[in-house]
Structures are given as structure tokens and as C-alpha cells.
């Protein structure tokens, strides 16, 4: 036997051993249950392509970071869970992917479609590349709370999935947060579409797309992130997203043809930035609702919101950005006072109301917003009020500064503190949204200094003499809003997982990159004492612009060929945003 023959034989034997130990195709419920019971780190359980009915998939096992347990479709999109099917994931490092849920019948609405808990919570677990398609109860069950995905545990992820046609009470993705432990969940690159309300819009609560937290634990921090999601033709209640915990981030999401708003209902210290809202004049549509303390809301583009209710009256909870009054001695489930909030560099286009300050959704909400900065917002052709002040801001830090409107009226002093009104030239319609143009009064007109304002809505760099509004002129950003052409390509079920803007949030102090911002030809990269392996640099659209392999713990990378802008460096499971100047 030759050396080549021996090598081939050993390789074939290794493949056979690996397949028999870690990978298996199951085609019956009995085989599936056996595979789940015997799963070990590195196991891959492959569900045969077919329709599975009344599946009760429950696992209580733990993989590892390097060897997760994978439960997947033989071919993504060719495995269908129908009837009364449910999935429960318990343990650590489990990945569930490739399954389509459809054609529900005799559904048990008390049990979520997918729950990150079986006998134990799931931690470091991922649900990705799935589709839940109109998997609803009967009309008689529409007022029963039926959640599609119930998050528990910590460090879990829901990504590249589509959630279509939800009808009936119950969140699509819900994290009840029964404890005050931080969660660190990530919800990204998902498609939420075609939800219909029970009755009229907002007749019933709990018809949102995503809810993070609950009233009872809302004063504790979750540190979860919701980014790069696309919400389309969505209608349920006033809260498309319901934030009920602290230190969460919402960014790079697109909302199109929807009703409701991204709502900071409870919780403190959240960030809402780089989101696009295209309400298309739908009644009862808004942008961002604000309650609580220490939020930063910036670089958002909000177009075509309509504060009218279906009956023609005006809602007190909508508008481009709506800053609520608080209630004295508020209970956890009521209205905490707004304090220490920055609302800066947002763009409003053709809305009825741009910013609404001190709204009173209830007569008992009498506490004015305190120490709120409203600065550098661009308000273009609003039809009712560019800025409506119902209750005056209080606190020594509160101010309206550097805001610019084109036509329309507002309840602040024009020409005071840099707030100005112009008759034309602020924006131009292009690329399916209104953009800043040369000669605009917004160029280089920004006031103040904000440590978080380093980029614009498209990912371009903000200079020290920055522009008013969400976009910086000629900053080079490419993080454009999603459209229907992106579904199944870069977002939602079947979407391509690429290194993109979403991964920029995954930070690790062990990933050291210097000098930053880089003005030299090289950057130095290290990851503690770990061998670097594959190092990738991507632009903000996710396109890989540099890829190399380093069999060392430190590396010097040539970046002089890269254009000025923001990039993401990815080393193993860690990513960090860098700026090249």
C-alpha cells in the first residue's frame, strides 16, 4: 500500500468516525428523541427533509463554544414543523436552524413556538435561519397570549430569521426577564412582516414584535442589542418594539409601512440610533417614544408619521419623537419621569409632528421632562408642528439648540440658541430617502459636543464641525435602509450571514488594535495570548476588504490601501470597529 493510499484510507476512516460520532440524519420522532438524549459537545442532529407534524423537540444538553450542539434542517427551508409543534432548548451552546413553522392546527397557545428553556434555561444558544409563517391559533384563540419566541437565560441570539403573519395577542420575540440578571441577548438581521391587530390597532396590548423585559424588573439592566432588523407592513399596537429594561441598544433597524413606534416604555440608559422609519402616512404611526432616564437618541431618520387614530382623533403617544410626561410616585408599570436624555441629530421628513415634548397620555402624568437636550435636529416640511411643546422642559441642563426646520411652525424661539428656520434647500430626495446636499444650511451647523456622535446614520465619520441632522454630507457611509429586495438576501430567512455593521457591537477588551484612529500605513492587532488565526477587515456594508491568516499572537497589517472610513476588524469570535483616516 502506498503512502497516498494509506493517507486516503486514514482520512476516509476519520470521516466515517466523525460522522458516526457527531452527525446523524433523523427521519422519525423516535430517532430524534434518541439523538437529543445522546447529544454531546460537537453533535450535529440533522432533521430529514420532510413535513414533521406535532413535534415536541426538547433538549437539555450542553455543548461548548468550540463544539456546540447543532440541530438543523437537512436542507434549509425543506424541513417543515406543522400542527402543534414546539421547541424547547435547555443547556448551553445549542444552535437550532433551518426549520420552517407553518400550518398550525390544534395549537397549544400556552406554550411558545420556541422557548430558550427546557428543564433549565439556555445560555449562549442561537436560533438562526428559521421562518415562522402565520403559525397562529384559531380566531377563537386570538386573545390568548401566544408568544412565538420566548427568550430566557443569557447571551442568546435570534438572527437571520423571518417572522410573518402573526395574528393574536403575544409578542413575536419576548424576554420576560423574571430576574434582574443581565441578559446580553442579540436580535439581528431578522424580518418581521404582515402582523395584523386583533380588532383595531392598539385595541389590545402585547401585540409587539420584540419586548425586552417586564415592568417588575425594568429598573435592572439587560445589556441586550436589537440591530439590523427589517419591520415591514406591521400593525399590532403602539409598541412595535417595547423596551422594559436598561442599557439596551437599538440600531440600524428599518421600519417601513407600519403602525406604532419603537417605545422606551420602562428602563434607563438605552441608546436608539441609526434607525430608518418610513411610516407612509399610516394612521397611528410614530418613530420613537421616550420614558425613563439617561437615554441617547440620535442619528435617526423618521419620515411620514401620522399621529391620527383610526377614529380621526390625535394620539398623545405618537409623533416623530415623543417625550412623555411622568407620573408622580409612579408604580413600575406606569410612567417614570424623563430625565437626562439627549435627543440630537435626528432627521424628520414630512411628518405631522416632528418632536413632541411633554405629552400626557394620561391626565395624571404631570411631571415635566427634566434635563433634556434637544439639539441639531433637522425637521423638513412637517405639516402640523415641527416641535410641539405641551409641557415645558425643566432642569438647568434642558435646552433647544441648533435645530433647523424648513417651513412649518414650532413652539420654540427661532434665532435663539442657533435654532433657525429656512424656506428651502435643506434636503433633496434621492436613494429612496431625503439626503443632505451641498449648500444646505445644515452643513457644518451642529452645536455642542457629544461623545457618542462619532458617525452618521450611514456609518460615515462625523468631523468636529459636524452637520445638523442624521446624515453627514459626503461622509462615505454605506449602511442604507433595508428594502424588500434585501429579504432573503441580507436579512431574514435565507439571508447571508456576512461580517457587517451588526457585528461592530461585539467588543472584547482583549482584542487590542492600535493606533486608533489610524493615520499610519499599518495597524497592530493582538488578542491576548491567543493565536490570531484568520483576521478579516470589512467595510460597513459587510464587504471583506482584507483577509489574512496569522499564526502568531500579534500582527502588523497594512491598511494604507484602504479608503478613509469606518471598518470592522474580526478575529475569531471577536469584532471591533476601527476608523481609518
UniProtKB/TrEMBL annotation:
Read off the InterPro entries from this record.
Answer: PbH1, Pectin_lyas_fold, Pectin_lyase_fold/virulence, PL-6, Secre_tail
Claim: Signal is one of the keywords in the record: yes
- Give UniProt keywords alphabetically: Signal
Please report the stretch or stretches of sequence annotated as the Secretion system C-terminal sorting domain: 513-580
- Tell me the domain of life: Bacteria
Instruction: Indicate the secretion signal residues.
Output: 1-23
Please verify whether the record's keywords include Transferase: no
The record, for SMART domains, names: PbH1
Q: What is this protein called?
A: T9SS type A sorting domain-containing protein
**The organism's taxonomic lineage, starting at the top:** Bacteria, Pseudomonadati, Bacteroidota, Flavobacteriia, Flavobacteriales
Amino acid at each position: 500500500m502506498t503512502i497516498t493510499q494509506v493517507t486516503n484510507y486514514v482520512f476516509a476512516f476519520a470521516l466515517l468516525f466523525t460522522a458516526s460520532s457527531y452527525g446523524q440524519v433523523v427521519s422519525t420522532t423516535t430517532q430524534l428523541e434518541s439523538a437529543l438524549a445522546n447529544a454531546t459537545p460537537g453533535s450535529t442532529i440533522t432533521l430529514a427533509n420532510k413535513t414533521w407534524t406535532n413535534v415536541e423537540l426538547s433538549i437539555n444538553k450542553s455543548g461548548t463554544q468550540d463544539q456546540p450542539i447543532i440541530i438543523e434542517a437537512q436542507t434549509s427551508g425543506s424541513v417543515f414543523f406543522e400542527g402543534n409543534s414546539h421547541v424547547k432548548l435547555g443547556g448551553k451552546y445549542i444552535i437550532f436552524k433551518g426549520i420552517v413553522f407553518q400550518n398550525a392546527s390544534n395549537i397549544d397557545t400556552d406554550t411558545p413556538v420556541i422557548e430558550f428553556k427546557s428543564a433549565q434555561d439556555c445560555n449562549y444558544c442561537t436560533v438562526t435561519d428559521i421562518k415562522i409563517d402565520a403559525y397562529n391559533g384559531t380566531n377563537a384563540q386570538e386573545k390568548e397570549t401566544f408568544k412565538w419566541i420566548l427568550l430566557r437565560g443569557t447571551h442568546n441570539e435570534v438572527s437571520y430569521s423571518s417572522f410573518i403573519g402573526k395574528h393574536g395577542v403575544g409578542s413575536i420575540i419576548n424576554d420576560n426577564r423574571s430576574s434582574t440578571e443581565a441578559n446580553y441577548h442579540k436580535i439581528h438581521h431578522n424580518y418581521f412582516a404582515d402582523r395584523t391587530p386583533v380588532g383595531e390597532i392598539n385595541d389590545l396590548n402585547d401585540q409587539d414584535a420584540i419586548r425586552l423585559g417586564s415592568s417588575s424588573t425594568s429598573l435592572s439592566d439587560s445589556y441586550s442589542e436589537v440591530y439590523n432588523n427589517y419591520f415591514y407592513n406591521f400593525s399590532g399596537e403602539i409598541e412595535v418594539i417595547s423596551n422594559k429594561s436598561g442599557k439596551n441598544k437599538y440600531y440600524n433597524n428599518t421600519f417601513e409601512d407600519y403602525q406604532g413606534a419603537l417605545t422606551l416604555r420602562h428602563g434607563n440608559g438605552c441608546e436608539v440610533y441609526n434607525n430608518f422609519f418610513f411610516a407612509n402616512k399610516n394612521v397611528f404611526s410614530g418613530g420613537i417614544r421616550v420614558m425613563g432616564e439617561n437615554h441617547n437618541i440620535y442619528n435617526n431618520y423618521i419620515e411620514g408619521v401620522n399621529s391620527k387614530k383610526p377614529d380621526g382623533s390625535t394620539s398623545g403617544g405618537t409623533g416623530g419623537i415623543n417625550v412623555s410626561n411622568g407620573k408622580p410616585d409612579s408604580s413600575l408599570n406606569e410612567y417614570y419621569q424623563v430625565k437626562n436624555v439627549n435627543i440630537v441629530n435626528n432627521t424628520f421628513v414630512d411628518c405631522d409632528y416632528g418632536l413632541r415634548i411633554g405629552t400626557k397620555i394620561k391626565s395624571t402624568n404631570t411631571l415635566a421632562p427634566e434635563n433634556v437636550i434637544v439639539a441639531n435636529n433637522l425637521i423638513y416640511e412637517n405639516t402640523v408642528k415641527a416641535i410641539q411643546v405641551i409641557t415645558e422642559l425643566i432642569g438647568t441642563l434642558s435646552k433647544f439648540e441648533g435645530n433647523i426646520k424648513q417651513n412649518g411652525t414650532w413652539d420654540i424661539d427661532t434665532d435663539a440658541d442657533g435654532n433657525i428656520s429656512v424656506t428651502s434647500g435643506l434636503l433633496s430626495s434621492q436613494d429612496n430617502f431625503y439626503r443632505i446636499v451641498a449648500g444646505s444650511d445644515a452643513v457644518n451647523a451642529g452645536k455642542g459636543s457629544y461623545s457618542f456622535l462619532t458617525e452618521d446614520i450611514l456609518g460615515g465619520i462625523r468631523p468636529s464641525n459636524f452637520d445638523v441632522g442624521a446624515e453627514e454630507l459626503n461622509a462615505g457611509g454605506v449602511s442604507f435602509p433595508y428594502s424588500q429586495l434585501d429579504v432573503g438576501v441580507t436579512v431574514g430567512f435565507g439571508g447571508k450571514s456576512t461580517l457587517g455593521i451588526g457585528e461592530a457591537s461585539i467588543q472584547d477588551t482583549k482584542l487590542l488594535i492600535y493606533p486608533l484612529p489610524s493615520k499610519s500605513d499599518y495597524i497592530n492587532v493582538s488578542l491576548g495570548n491567543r493565536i490570531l488565526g484568520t483576521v478579516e477587515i470589512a467595510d460597513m456594508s459587510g464587504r471583506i476588504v482584507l483577509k489574512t491568516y496569522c499564526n502568531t499572537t500579534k500582527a502588523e497589517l497594512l491598511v494604507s490601501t484602504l479608503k478613509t472610513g469606518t471598518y470592522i476588524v474580526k478575529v475569531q469570535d471577536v469584532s471591533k470597529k476601527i476608523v481609518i483616516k
